[in-house]
Amino acid sequence: MFKHVLVIAGVISLSSLGVQANKIPQEKKPKIAQKEVYTKSWEKIYGGENDDIAHDIVALENGESAIVGTCKSFAAQQSDICVSRMSAEGQMKWTILLGGNKQDEGRAITRGADGNLFVLGITKSLSKNYDRDIYVAKVTLEGKLVWERAIGGDRDESAGGIAGLDDGSVMIVGDTESFGKRYRDIYIAKLSKEGKTVFAHTVGGKKTDEAHDLTRLSDGNLALVGMREVRNNYEEFFVMKFDQNGKQLWAKTFGEYDDDSLESVTPTADGGLVAVGKTRSYGSEQTDLTVMKLSKEGKVLWHKIYGFKYYEYGTAVTSTKEGGFMISGGTSTLGKGSHSVYMLALDNNGALLWSHVYGDKNRDIAHGIARMSDGTVISVGESDSFSRAKNFHMIKIRAK
Questions:
Q1: What single string gives the DSSP state of each residue in 227-257?
Q2: Domain count, the chain
């Protein structure tokens, strides 16, 4: 199903690979940086009478962007995958709805080699077994659907991350209960530019393994981040680097005595990566935001934790034009409402440069972040502080 809406305003076992859980160094700084080295350019709310949530964002030319989310407004049948193109000023130029008459959710978006958009989500509408399948689509910059398909078996699948490749193909990662060893395993697939499967395989052990995000690295290889369920059913950080043919180059599992998970990853200029997520280990009082940098060989170069009394976490990360990193996440300790957007800027060594809390009286949650072509950064998510329903929440940040 496709609607156009114009809106104004093989199986690999981890144990066989010798992947072991390791402790990693960390530094906890439970404080807010006071120096205002960044400032807000604008803050926008978009939505209808029902819940509309932005999950991810990708930069386009001239400071514009494209957003993917889940919409129940705009004539959606239940919940549809919605893709929107935004101007540099944060005005919505068009929105299309993808999916069908059942529940569909948008999760991630990226650019293809031809400049068009690849969209990743979850679908019940296109599933043949009435379960949840991975949804992949290609959409032009004018908002026209090129192709769409569902990937799944007789049980549930979940979408993680997506990355375009140089030959016009696309790599996706997620989780599967249908394939692999019948546990929840990581699913990796490469699709051609026409949407046909080039290869697919799973990575996992005897417990739950999940991929939450995917990125292209500066050397052309890819890295996924997520979590593995290990000893005593605790979750631990998981990072895996692999080439464009799906061959694993290395895999690392890190953690301590409680649940740890990575949610987002971005490449670094030196071939490494920076990943963010959440931890209940390392002396956390409840749940804290965690961020770490790994070298191209998978060595942890630094690991920082930011947390307060209650619940803090990182959902997305991008690089800044100044050479550092911008993180979006959430906090239930700070802010006016029950939950607020928590943003941090770090330098290349992980030192805190700036942080700020955004939101109002209710729940404001960030899900995605990207650096625009003009050097600014936009965070996207959801808010019900300004209306009865959840709306798209966008915040544009620039250096002062």
A1: EEE-GGG-EEEEEEEE-TT--EEEEEEE--S
A2: 1
